Amino acid sequence: MHSRTPYIAANWKMHKTVAEAAEFVDALLPRIAATQSDVVICPPFTALAEVVERRRGTAVKVAAQNMHEADSGAFTGEVSGPMLVELDVEAVVLGHSERRQYFSETDEALARKVAAALAHELEPILCVGESEEARDAGETEGVLERQLQADLAAIDDLAVGGVVIAYEPIWAIGTGRTATPEQAQEACAFIRDVLRARGAAAEEVRILYGGSVKPANAAELLALPDVDGALVGGASLDPEEFAAIVDAT
Length: 249
Ligand code: PEP
Prior knowledge:
This protein is of the alpha/beta class.
């Protein structure tokens, strides 16, 4: 058994208005009051302030779903680290496959974003994961290694300990096709090996699994030795379902 605190994050994507976010937090908090795990909510930018205020005085953390690497500038539509810090946001999801796929987010940009997030004391939740084609071609490990090396290239080994990694096989996101426990364990252990090989304190790093995590499969996935938590999309939109996943830690 490892001593890493379990980490369960709710990625709402482009769901929930401010009013819906408030309703969710009020319903969630009493359901998870006794948890010892780290619980993180990742609302859309518009609901960040509301979720921050509603969770004040609790252990729930709040993360943005993206940020720009610059502190300010002519970047229409973007949000910066200092803007998130001003709201008391504590973490930021970086490199989600939807951002890589639909918004052409590159590993080069991610390297800058990871460094900028850490510089502002925002905890990066860095997403990596292979496509179905890459898995079928036996390239899963190659993809993971390339993404990790590139996305963590701008920070030193010591700083890697402050990054949360989410292993999210693209073929399992929003599809109902969860990775098998063997696949999840193998990939998360490989990620830890890559971090260890580059000289990071790999035993400290929380590595999450993401991809169709539900109350019914959470306990099995979260019991795996190298899976320290979950990044939850669809099932995080309902406070009861999300609380049941937190309960599985
Ligand atoms: C995600 O959004 O990161 C995710 C894993 O989604 P889902 O749980 O819906 O597959």
